[in-house]
Amino acid sequence: GAVVSQHPSRVICKSGTSVKIECRSLDFQATTMFWYRQFPKQSLMLMATSNEGSKATYEQGVEKDKFLINHASLTLSTLTVTSAHPEDSSFYICSVGGAGTDTQYFGPGTRLTVL
Amino acid sequence: GENVEQHPSTLSVQEGDSAVIKCTYSDSASNYFPWYKQELGKRPQLIIDIRSNVGEKKDQRIAVTLNKTAKHFSLHITETQPEDSAVYFCAASKGNDYKLSFGAGTTVTVRA
Known about the structure:
The structure holds two protein chains of two kinds. Chain A is mostly beta strands. Chain A has no helices and eleven strands.
């Protein structure tokens, strides 16, 4: 399967600051990337679908101005949490797919803690 | 949109016994059904998947069955081992490049 990395693995920030999370597909041309959020002991909730070279499609209830997604290349997508607040603290995971495949492979996740 | 329900939410089995997790989906257009295993603080790992043109698939101790008419699919783990302890998620999608809808997860504990 595809090898996916995320950076950083953990981040602690102050309320009101912005945090950028990177998702890289190391061996796969990912035309589509997905961003999920997972709260403790809960399932993965899709936030948005990111297509290379076009605007992301956000799920209902996800603020696109707060969670900025950029997918400028086939190997990199970024999620920026703007003006982070404690309720944004969560585990953020990306997955890669695309190129006609239905299988998704996940990154290792980023643990965000907002103080 | 797609709604995936998963049962049970927790499952405790004796080492060596079998574990079965069941999922139902609502959208008849869904045609791809993966299962992921997630250990605490780690990424979900794909363990097996099935597509709608197949009724059953097996990989060593893991098997998945699909009933398209009833819109349900199940994960079977035989001869469970302590390392099988994790949270398991089922999911469904409409296939290529389409988003996954996840079930709520099942916490499996294998007692030694």
